[in-house]
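User: Reviewer 2 asked us to show a designed sequence for the structure in our supplementary figure. I'm pasting the structure tokens here. Could you produce the per-position amino acids so we can include them in the response letter?
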């Protein structure tokens, strides 16, 4: 049973050996470049890099993004129900009541987010 893994072991050994040899050869025979401040600075379309690389975003941005993702996923859950609505409603009205409850909970969550000021950018 161990002999079944022997080709895999040899392939891993050859791959690791190849990587070590190639990296070693590049270190030994490669030219080391001189460094200076101009060459080591970031190149941004000819503009001098001034300030931080990434601006700080408000927490409101992340809150709105999370609310969007949550409500977007809920709409994705409604799509399969809408596709099968005609077939389900012929059997009983339970699917209609269940999606009405689901949409009602979503509406309550939306009203709660509005009352908490989650979508108010001014504050």
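Assistant: Here is a per-position design you can include in the supplement:
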């Amino acid at each position: 049973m161990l002999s079944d893994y022997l080709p895999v072991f040899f392939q891993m050994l050859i791959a690791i050996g190849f990587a070590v040899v190639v990296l070693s050869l590049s270190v030994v025979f490669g030219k080391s470049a001189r460094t200076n401040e101009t060459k080591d600075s970031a190149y941004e379309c000819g503009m001098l890099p001034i300030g931080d690389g990434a601006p700080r975003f408000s927490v409101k941005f992340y809150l709105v993004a999370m609310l969007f993702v949550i409500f977007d996923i809920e709409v994705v859950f409604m799509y399969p129900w809408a596709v099968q609505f005609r077939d389900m409603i012929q059997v009983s009205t339970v699917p209609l009541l269940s999606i009405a409850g689901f949409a009602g909970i979503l509406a309550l969550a939306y009203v709660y987010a509005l009352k908490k000021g989650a979508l108010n950018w001014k504050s």
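For the response letter, you might also mention the following. The chain has five helices and no strands. The chain has a mean pLDDT of 85.
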